Amino acid sequence: MKLAVIDLGTNTCNLLIAGINEKNYRILHQGKLGVKLGKDGIDRNLLSREAFSRATAALNQHRETIASFQADRVVTIATSAVRDAANKDAFTAHLQKETGLRLSVISGNEEAQLIFQGVKLAFNSIPDDNLILDIGGGSNEFIQTKNNGIHWKESFPLGMARVVEQFSLSDPISEKEISAIETYFEHGLGTLWKQLAGTKISRLIGCSGAFDTLADLIDQTPPGSKQRVKQSINLTDFQYIAEKIIRSTKAQREKMTGMEPLRVEMIVPSFLFIRLILNRLKPAEMAQTDFALREGVLYEWINH
Asked: In 91-115, which positions are buried (b, 16+ CB within 10 angstroms) versus exposed (e)?
């Protein structure tokens, strides 16, 4: 059986096509298209007319790819920007009319569950007190592990598209703006600090956009050219790259090997976010995986 999974995120619309044979799978195609659903509206919980158009174009393009692979089943999921939008019903109705795809809008809790399953598909076994982090445009999901399962999970509406829309950032970002964003994250993550007080996090596992870009910047590989099921990230490498990115101008970032054009604006607050987590929780290790929500859907199909 061939399964296609579309993840309509706040910043990108991702596609995974996999062949499934009982408990075995093979990834046949991975692709992503920019949609920027958060642009000009996420701070007001609205999807703009332009967002409607960009999402329609992306889904129709993915639909063509799916048809070329002759997929048997298509699962289309929408996350933070859509679930929080006041006009989400009009948006989903428009997309179904224009693309024929029925959008399943999932909760933050369901999103965290699928992300965990995707990471489990990559790592197979996950030790206790690993902390999984998925940084998105609309929300960030944290999952604390225990007994190779979920001990605690939460979705925080602190996504990077929200930060970019809410804070008018200088180029390069100023010390005052760095401090304001760090304070915003610090306060917004109150339940995370409370949950993990007195816990030693052994490893931070990062998945999705910002972590993929981090791995590409470290490896000096063009975006999307290297598929990583799992990769260890040296903490010193992160600190070096983060400092370089945070101090850079937009023009400098655009020229960096490994920098995805879609992430040029959001990578600065993303790295401020990761740096804060590392400084507060002091995990001994960090790892990155390409596997996240889409692979979590694949995990469900393999194990249902």
From this structure: bbebbeeebebebebbebebbbbbb
Tokens 């996504």 sit at which residue? 159
Give how far Cα 212 sits from Cα of 163, 222, 228, 277, Å.
Answer: 20, 11, 9, 17
Q: How confident is the model at residue 92 (pLDDT cuts 50, 70, 90)?
A: very high
User: In sequence order, what E strands does 88-169 have?
Assistant: 104-105, 130-135, 140-146, 149-156
Q: Could you write out the DSSP letters of every residue in 50-85?
A: HHHHHHHHHHHHHHHHHHHHT-SEEEEEE-HHHHT-
Identify the pLDDT of residue 39: 85
The single residue listed with the structure tokens 């401020």 is 272
| φ/ψ of residue 141, rounded to 5 | -105, 135
Question: Average model confidence (pLDDT) for the chain?
Answer: 94
208 pLDDT more than 90:
no
pLDDT of 233 reads 97
Cα 60-213-104 angle, rounded to 5 deg: 35
Helices 209-219 and 267-281 meet at what angle, rounded to 10? 90
What CA–CA distance (Å, rounded) separates 261 from 223? 9
Per residue in 16-28, pLDDT tens?
999 999 889 999 9
| pTM above threshold 0.85 | yes
Cα–Cα distance, 304 to 290 (Å, whole number): 23
Which residues does 129 contact at the CB level (< 8 Å), separation at least 6? 144, 145, 146, 151, 199, 200, 201, 202
